[in-house]
Amino acid sequence: MTNTPQQDAKYKILQQASNGWHLIEDRAQNLTKGQCDRMLKEYIRKGENPNDLRAVSQEDPRFPTKPKSEGWLPTNF
Fold first, then answer.
1. Which residue in 44, 45, 57, 67 has the fewest CB atoms around it within 10 Å?
2. Domain boundaries, the chain
């Protein structure tokens, strides 16, 4: 059995803010369709406005996601 493009599709969840659409949190990316649906329901249940949420393809060029940075790690402690 081969995977169709629909089965391999990955999604991310964006939230609308005053300065546009942004990834709602780091864990809300590279999701399967089922994971994405469950997370959207979870955000709405926790009080997020459904009109401010959007699920899009992980590869959607309109909403690029920067790679997660490890940040600054102190080395002198």
1. 67
2. 10-57
Question: From the CA atom positions of the chain, what is the Rg in Å?
Answer: 15
Going along 1-77, which residue ranges are E strands?
11-17, 20-23, 53-57
Residue 34 has pLDDT above 70, yes or no: yes
Give yes or no for a contact between 52 and 11, defined as CB atoms under 8 angstroms apart: no
* Distance from C-alpha of 66 to C-alpha of 75, rounded to nearest angstrom: 25
Taking the C-alpha atoms of residue 51 and residue 33, their distance in angstroms, rounded to an integer, is 19
Residues paired with residue 56 on neighbouring β-strands, in sequence order: 12
Structure token digits, residue 25 = 């949190």
Mean pLDDT of 23-34: 95
How far apart are the C-alpha atoms of 10 and 33, rounded to whole Å? 7
40 sits in which H/E element: helix 33-45
